[in-house]
């Protein structure tokens, strides 16, 4: 519902107008929203004024880094695991993680070993990624696609990277 921050019955002796601030608390909504703000004035030529209000409520809302560096490991390293944080920055609805998929040149070297199925409003959790260099040294990279019920970003990509051994980029 709309709630006015300023006082109703706002009076402004300045003939250039004034500001009225309003706020909207859309807890639990995720869609286009529209309303009107109606004023009654003492202006006989325009005794009432209606202002159209509209916007898009984005809830739930995924927040995740676009890049995750698994790390640098010595030659001959075995399986390594690391976690990164995923957040629901929406304040009213649960973020449902509907899938994870790894693609790219070294996709076979990466595995999602744990991922939340849901994240509460304004909450966070972790995704665990496992790197298996399979006896090889080098630069390993892939893309993790996270699908969710975020209406604006139903698919988020996290670029994964790891370095094993003496491989030096651009050498």
What labels would you give this structure?
51% strand; 13 strands; mainly beta; 171 residues; four-stranded antiparallel β-sheet; disordered N terminus; five-stranded mixed β-sheet
- The structural class is mainly beta
How large is the count of helical segments?
Answer: 0
The N- to C-terminal Cα distance equals 60 Å
Poorly predicted regions are: 1-9
Strand order of the largest sheet: 6-13-12-8-10
The major beta sheet can be summarized as: 5 strands, mixed
Overall radius of gyration: 25 Å
What number is the mean pLDDT?
84
Helix content: under 10%
What would a concise description of this structure say?
This protein has 171 residues and is mostly beta strands. It has no helices and 13 strands. Helices cover 0% and strands 51% of the residues.
What does this structure look like?
The protein has 171 residues and is mainly β. The protein has no helices and 13 strands. The chain has strands at 2-4, 22-24, 32-40, 48-56, 62-64, 67-73, 80-88, 95-103, 110-114, 118-119, 124-131, 138-148, 155-164. A 5-stranded mixed beta sheet has the order 6-13-12-8-10, with no helix packed on it. Strands 5-7-11-9 form a 4-stranded antiparallel beta sheet, with no helix packed on it. The protein starts with a strand and ends in a 7-residue tail after the last strand. Residues 1-9 have low confidence and may be disordered.
């Amino acid at each position: 519902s709309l709630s006015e921050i300023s006082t109703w019955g706002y009076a402004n002796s300045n003939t250039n107008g004034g500001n009225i601030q309003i706020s909207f608390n859309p807890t639990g909504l995720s869609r286009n929203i529209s309303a009107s703000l109606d004023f009654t004035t003492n202006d006989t030529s325009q005794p009432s004024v209606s202002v159209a209000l509209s916007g898009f409520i984005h809830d739930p809302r995924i927040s995740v880094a676009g890049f995750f560096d698994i790390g640098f490991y010595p030659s001959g390293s075995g399986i390594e695991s690391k976690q990164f944080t995923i957040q629901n920055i929406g304040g009213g609805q649960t973020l449902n993680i509907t899938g994870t998929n790894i693609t790219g040149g070294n996709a076979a070297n990466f595995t999602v070993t744990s991922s939340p199925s849901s994240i509460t409003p304004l909450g966070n959790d972790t995704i665990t990624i496992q790197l298996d260099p399979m006896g090889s040294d080098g630069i390993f990279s892939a893309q993790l696609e996270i699908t969710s019920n975020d209406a604006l970003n139903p698919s988020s990509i996290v670029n994964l990277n790891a370095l094993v051994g003496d491989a030096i980029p651009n050498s």
